[in-house]
């Protein structure tokens, strides 16, 4: 398994969609970004993704159950970038650490987005995914690892 079922379904939906429908689908996912919880107001504790053309902030938290909670902030005027956040949120929020870390780096190419949006935007989305995975890796502590034996 290379990615959680929810994300795999989203990837398949995009990959099989006609090119003229892909942009509409992206716009729908831009609406899937939940508002930030109060403790993240002002981007406290969030990381900015400078590879994005627009101000984009993220925070990936690992719960004691080793599932991942995702928080994104991106202005509504950047629907494509918000769509990346919406796709990750819909496909990965609540997934296990191992599932998140197994997501392939070429996720957006597998979705067929490279044919529908600019390479610069695809690079921004890829940077979001990479930073999210790094945060998940860094937030794991020895106590959070399964015990051996």
UniProtKB/TrEMBL annotation:
<feature type="domain" description="Fe-S metabolism associated">
    <location>
        <begin position="12"/>
        <end position="135"/>
    </location>
</feature>
<comment type="similarity">
    <text>Belongs to the SufE family.</text>
</comment>
<dbReference type="InterPro" id="IPR003808">
    <property type="entry name" value="Fe-S_metab-assoc_dom"/>
</dbReference>
<dbReference type="Pfam" id="PF02657">
    <property type="entry name" value="SufE"/>
</dbReference>
<protein>
    <submittedName>
        <fullName>Hypothetical SufE-like protein</fullName>
    </submittedName>
</protein>
